[in-house]
Each structure stands twice: as structure tokens, then as C-alpha cells.
Design goal:
2 strands, alpha+beta, 18% strand, 71 residues, elongated, 25% helix
Length: 71
Amino acid sequence: VEPRKDVHILPNTSSLLLDPSAAPPDVPLWERPLSSKVLIDATKKWKYTDIALPPSKYMEKVEEDWKKYGL
């Protein structure tokens, strides 16, 4: 994410009931002050190389350990 390109702030939007910073919980939605929202474009802009994984002997060891831990 490059902030100057990929982060957008929408001012003067309605606040949500789930936003504890907007108003006390007993204030009805229509009486809450305006708020703002942030949009973040975190999409990949181009193709990346494949994911690099550890050698298989380490991956197998982790799987064995997870079974011992009940995971």
C-alpha cells in the first residue's frame, strides 16, 4: 500500500452503531454526529513471485509437532 495513492478518507459519513468512538451506545443512530471512513486499496498491482516455503523436512517436523500439540 502506498498511502498517497491507496488510502482514501471519506469525510462526513454517518457513523455506525458498532463504532464506540462515535457516541455513547445509548445514542440513536439518527442522533449520532457525522464521522469519516477510510478506504484502503491493498490489492496486488502486479504479479508477484511464488511464495517461498521452508524445506519440506522442516514443514513435516512442524506438522508432527502440531499433532502432538493437538492443533
